[in-house]
Amino acid sequence: MKIFADENIERSIIDGLRRRKIEVISVIELGYEGLPDEFHIQKAYEIKAVILTHDFDFLRIASKPGINHCGIIFAHSKNVSIGQCIRGVELIINILTVEDMKNHVEFL
Question: Is the pTM here over 0.90, yes or no?
Answer without folding.
Answer: yes
